[in-house]
Amino acid sequence: MAPKARITAKATTTTKARARSEERRAEILRAAFEVIAERGYRGASLGAVAERVGLTQQGLLHYFPTKDALLVAVLDARDQWDAVPSNEIRLDLLGSLVEYNAMRPGIIQTFSALLGESVTDGHPAREYFTERYGSVREKFAAVLRVEYGDRLPGGLTPKAAAPLLVAVMDGLQYQWLLDPESVDMAGAFRDFLGLIGADSGGDSGNGGE
After folding, report:
1. How far apart are CA 165 and CA 193, in angstroms?
2. How far is CA 206 from CA 19, 161, 164, 166, 193, in A?
3. CB burial class (10 A; 0-12, 13-18, 19+) of residue 15?
4. Which of 7, 9, 55, 12 is nearest to 32 (CA)?
5. What is the tens place of the pLDDT at every residue in 95-132?
6. Element (H, E) at 28
7. Residues 6+ apart with CB under 8 A from 176
8. 3-state secondary structure 86-147
9. For residues 208 and 160, is the Cβ–Cβ distance under 8 A?
10. 3-state DSSP call for residue 1?
């Protein structure tokens, strides 16, 4: 075989191998998503996921070296699967998003557990959550700006109000996970949306950019 043909054949083989690896990773992530939904955060062991895709646990570690790495990849994949174009996000749809999340307690449990752990230095999920929160704050500020302009009725700017919107959404998730019978997550979030849209009759003094 000529040198050029050998190089081409090698490149083709490498491309096919990479494609198979990506397909396998996607299959593992879908399986992990299903196991988490069925068994929750603690029940989603590497062994359970490996069994579902026909791998040994050691074989699974070739793709994801730790459970945390796998779970972070699941959350990242969920963000991509659930992604809505920024120009299609509306404030009134955020309540529907909270209702949708309530239908997936295993994933929300995983998200909340990793979020709590990620505040420690060196945690594998820290970068994911840091980048995610920065992106979400920007998106929510844009949504609020479309809805209210440069100032909300209470005086806050969209940029100042965005972290509060994120904090309420995630804080409600924790309360709901702990006591779902007592906390109506979607209802409470809609109540909050009503509050930020209500005119308080004066500037709060905290609305600076």
Report:
1. 8
2. 51, 9, 12, 17, 18
3. exposed
4. 55
5. 888 998 899 888 888 889 889 988 988 888 899 999 99
6. helix 3-43
7. 102, 108, 183, 185
8. HHHCCHHHHHHHHHHHHCCHHHHHHHHHHHHHCCCCCCCCHHHHHHHHHHHHHHHHHHHHHH
9. yes
10. coil
The amino acid that residue 98 corresponds to is V
Which residues fall within 8 angstroms of residue 73, CB to CB, at 6 or more apart? 25, 29, 32, 64
pLDDT tens by residue, 20-69: 888 999 999 999 988 888 888 788 899 999 999 999 999 999 999 988 88
Across residues 78-87, what is the average pLDDT? 68
With 0.90 as the threshold, say if the pTM is over it: no
Helix (H, G, I), strand (E, B) or coil at 163: helix
Contact indicator for 133, 126 with CB cutoff of 8 Å: no
